Target: NADH-quinone oxidoreductase subunit A
Amino acid sequence: MSMSTSTEVIAHHWAFAIFLIIAIGLCCLMLAGAFFLGGRARGRQKNTPFESGIDSVGTARLRLSAKFYLVAMFFVIFDVEALYLFAWSTSIRESGWVGFVEAAIFILVLLAGLVYLARIGALDWTPARSRRSQINPEPGSHTNRHPQ
Model:
């Protein structure tokens, strides 16, 4: 007797199917338990946010500069690249000189990217108008604009 194709697939994957059914059932059971056993109190203070013993003041909607997101992206990029270098360092004996040259090229490309970011001003935190005000004029260049 030969089994049909669908019965054969079910026979091979019965453990996963049982696991999936139990996981979905457990999730539904926990959601139903939270619904039936959860608190029913309603009140004005019940729905206000409360953080570490301090009442909230103001709004949480803050406008942040795009510089924060740029720095976050640079961090992720350079962090992932550091992860690649760590993987390279663990296999340095197997990779030999060819791997060393490849890692050196990789580091040079990273360094070129960092120099480029510094040259275009992507790493400068201060806006251009405050950078201009921080530049001090030379001591002998003061002229009296208001004659007496």
